[in-house]
Specification:
- Strands 6-7-8-9-10-11-12-13 form an eight-stranded parallel sheet. Strands 1, 2, 3 and 4 form a four-stranded antiparallel sheet that branches.
- β15 and β16 form a beta hairpin.
- The protein contains 13 helices and 16 strands.
- It folds into two domains: about 100 residues, Urease, subunit C, domain 1 (Roll), CATH 2.30.40; about 300 residues, TIM Barrel.
- By secondary structure, the protein is an alpha/beta fold.
- α2 packs parallel to α3.
- Bound molecules: zinc ion (ZN).
- The site of zinc ion has 6 residues, from loops.
Length: about 400
């Protein structure tokens, strides 16, 4: 049993018919009383105007749909001081050849402790799945997934070059991944023209369909050849009769298309029910680099244009202190704050908050849609903040409620 009086985003609140309409501030927050029992929320009640204004801002526990737990915190031993995509790949490959199960266990544990304490309830992690560090990484992360099952949900994706799925070894990997409930992924960055790429994509989609796995691709993480990977994926999907759920992570170079072509592509993506994870921090750091010049063109998934077409778009943190990005901390509030200037998404608008909450939950097909309602899990982040500015100006102090119990 417990109770909290707090400001809640109206867009993340579902009230039963007949509930008095609560007054909502211009910043989308409304004062509510939340009670819970046996790990579930009771009916949320608008806080009477006679009560003092709350000093807390409450959000549902959050979701990060795209991280890399296997390589988190490797920057110190494998830095990428040039800050380029090529430099990141080189340092990543060097790190991969030296990693052990113990390394990945330690990194993953540190990451999940931070994630849980910051208020995440689910993460989807890609795992480097080709080469000497692949087997030990999967072993460690499956072990961590089981250890943490009571506190958070971990989804695991096999990350390999896309052509690997067309080989016998790729098929064997897919079967191993399916056996532990994972997803199939892959990298599709330019140059990716030609029928060979379409054959690999077809092999991947058919494998995933046969094995009942979802698919999550690294696609068009580039400042070259706008949307070349997406064009290939759409032409394959449009020719297939059935396909698994496909998430497109990055989709950064779509943002470089002229508006009409971008909108037409967004319509085709919506028709195929593709979902997108935008990754503004890693894209902002790696893409569009020029020697001795500050780039003004910043390749990023065109989030609002995709939303307008009906595509579900979430935002992820991607890399944390690894060769791809030196910052990050598995904190959903820090991610929201850092994304503000890059995405211009405002959390006081429904479509500004959804990529960090409900869209991420939908894309990961989680049991709870992330809306605060009667019967929903009593899983909350209670921030010491009376408005969005206090939630975003610095990582705020917080307490985390997991199934009705304060964990901190
Ligand atoms: Zn990634």
């Amino acid at each position: 049993m417990g109770e909290v009086k707090a400001w809640l985003p109206r867009s993340l609140l579902r009230l039963p018919p007949g509930t008095p309409i609560p007054s909502v501030r211009a910043d989308g927050l409304t004062a509510m009383r939340l009670r819970w029992e046996a790990g579930r929320l009771r009916r949320p009640e608008p806080l009477p105007a006679t009560e003092p204004a709350p000093s807390l801002l409450v959000l549902p526990r959050s979701v990060d749909p795209h991280v890399h737990l296997d390589k988190a915190f490797t920057w110190d031993r494998h830095p990428n001081l040039a800050g380029t995509y090529a430099g990141a790949l080189k340092a990543n490959l060097q790190e991969h050849t030296t990693r052990t199960r113990d390394d990945v266990l330690k990194r993953g544990h540190r990451a999940l402790e931070l994630a849980c304490a910051s208020g995440l309830r689910a993460l989807r992690s890609h795992i480097d799945s080709l080469g000497p560090g692949a087997a030990c990484s999967w072993e460690a992360l499956v072990e961590l997934r089981e250890q943490w099952r009571d506190r958070l949900e971990l989804q695991l994706v096999a990350l390999v070059p896309i052509e690997h799925w067309g080989t016998t070894e790729g098929e064997a990997l897919a079967e191993r991944v399916a056996a532990v409930g994972g997803l199939l992924g892959g990298v599709l960055v330019p140059p990716c023209a030609g029928s060979g790429v379409r054959r690999s994509l077809t092999a991947l989609l058919r494998l995933a369909q046969r094995l009942g796995c979802g698919v999550d691709l690294h696609i068009d993480e580039s400042d070259q050849n706008p949307a070349q990977g997406m064009q290939q994926l759409l032409s394959v999907l449009e020719a297939e009769r059935q396909s698994p759920a496909v998430t497109c992570s990055h989709a950064s170079s779509l943002g470089l298309l002229p508006m009409r072509r971008m909108e037409a592509m967004a319509e085709r993506m919506a028709a195929q029910q593709l979902t997108v994870v935008a990754l503004p921090l890693t894209n902002g750091w790696l893409l569009g680099r020029q020697r001795d010049a500050t780039p003004v063109l910043r390749p990023l998934a065109p989030i609002r244009q995709l939303q307008r077409a009906g595509v579900c778009v979430a935002i992820g943190g991607d890399n944390v202190a690894d060769p791809w990005y030196p910052g990050g901390c598995f904190d959903p509030l820090a991610l929201m704050a850092a994304s503000l200037p890059l995405t211009q998404l405002a959390p006081w608008q429904r479509l500004g908050l959804a990529p960090f909450s409900t869209a991420a939950a939908a894309l990961m097909q989680l049991d709870w849609d992330g809306v605060i309602a009667e019967g929903a899990p009593a899983d909350l982040i209670a921030l010491e903040a009376t408005g969005w500015h206090e939630a975003l100006m610095r990582p705020p102090q917080r307490r985390i409620l997991i199934r009705g119990r304060w964990s901190l």
